[in-house]
């Protein structure tokens, strides 16, 4: 399972921030998680290995629809469905996976007395056809850059008073120690540094250096994508 942490929000529905947002990039398209996506998402989660890697429980289709509805209203979660760019296919057929951002409070890795706001990212490319093409790398880069841009523009902090005094933006990743492809993605391609290992959770914690965040991810969204108004096409 993969996680990332970033300054973002608390008492404002995260999902509502992207409910009309479509991000069109070079290799993939990110769209909000809608009811029309649930059936295929449920089929993905029937796979035991996918559930293990994402730390997910098996749900009924009814529970999956309820989960999608709850994510829509959650104050601490932001979800995009990852689509391929094969325009001749309908939207459901183009679904490759999802990328998520969960929000909570934590402490700085350098000073535990310093409070920061975290976003925990999970990336899943469930379709084999979407793997090994740089799509996961692009999807993670887009959500980091999009969240960074929102925070940098004070879009979020102006709305959420409890976080107005938090100035540090920290991105981290937690990856299970047997998930070699994800470790390679975050270390070799995204530039994260391995910080520690938890034997209890059997996972590594990685952190994105601030200089890498500023030099690469602060401009990635503007240089590599176009933001449009999302319209459900099914």
TrEMBL record:
Ordered alphabetically, the record's keywords are: Acyltransferase, Transferase
Q: Name one GO molecular function term.
A: N-acetyltransferase activity
What the entry lists under InterPro entries is as follows:
Acyl_CoA_acyltransferase (IPR016181), GNAT_dom (IPR000182), NAT9-like (IPR039135)
Q: Which domain of life is it from?
A: Eukaryota
Q: Which residues form the N-acetyltransferase domain?
A: 29-192
Q: Which family does it belong to?
A: Belongs to the acetyltransferase family. GNAT subfamily.
PANTHER family linked: ALPHA_BETA-TUBULIN-N-ACETYLTRANSFERASE 9 (PTHR13256:SF16), N-ACETYLTRANSFERASE 9 (PTHR13256)
Q: What is this protein called?
A: N-acetyltransferase domain-containing protein
Q: What is the lineage of its organism?
A: Eukaryota, Metazoa, Ecdysozoa, Nematoda, Chromadorea
């Amino acid at each position: 399972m993969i996680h990332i942490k970033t300054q973002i929000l608390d008492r404002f529905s995260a999902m509502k921030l992207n409910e009309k947002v479509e991000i069109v990039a070079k290799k993939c398209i990110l769209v909000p998680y809608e009811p029309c996506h649930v059936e295929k998402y449920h089929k993905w989660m029937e796979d035991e290995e996918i559930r293990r890697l994402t730390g997910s429980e098996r749900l009924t289709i009814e529970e999956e629809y309820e989960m999608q509805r709850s994510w829509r209203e959650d104050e601490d979660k932001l979800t995009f469905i990852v689509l391929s760019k094969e325009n001749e296919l309908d939207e459901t057929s183009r679904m490759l996976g999802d990328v998520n951002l969960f929000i909570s409070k934590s402490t700085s890795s350098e000073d535990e007395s310093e409070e920061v706001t975290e976003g925990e990212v999970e990336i899943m490319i469930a379709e084999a056809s979407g793997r090994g093409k740089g799509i996961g790398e692009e999807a993670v880069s887009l959500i980091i850059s999009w969240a960074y841009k929102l925070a940098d523009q004070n879009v979020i902090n102006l709305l959420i008073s409890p976080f107005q005094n938090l100035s540090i933006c920290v991105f981290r990743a937690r990856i299970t120690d047997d998930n070699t492809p994800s470790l390679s993605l975050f270390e070799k391609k995204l530039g994260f540094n391995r910080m520690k290992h938890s034997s209890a959770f059997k996972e590594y914690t990685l952190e994105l250096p601030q200089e890498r965040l500023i030099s690469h991810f602060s401009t990635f969204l503007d240089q590599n994508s176009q933001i449009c108004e999302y319209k459900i096409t099914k």
